[in-house]
Amino acid sequence: MALMTVAEVAAFLSIQDIRVERLARENLLVPADKDAAGKPMFEEEDVKRYKVLAERLGGI
To answer: So which domain of life are we looking at (predicted)?
Structure first.
């Protein structure tokens, strides 16, 4: 289980950090844990599945 930070997810999805945090708040991308600063952390496989789904629906 590899965890990704908000910045890593944003880079992977080519979006801004604030959008990743919004996706987490709206439960569109469910965080697996939180880091020491309280920021969400995501499982790599979940992020990859979200990207595939978002591309199928017309983009992120």
So the answer is: Bacteria
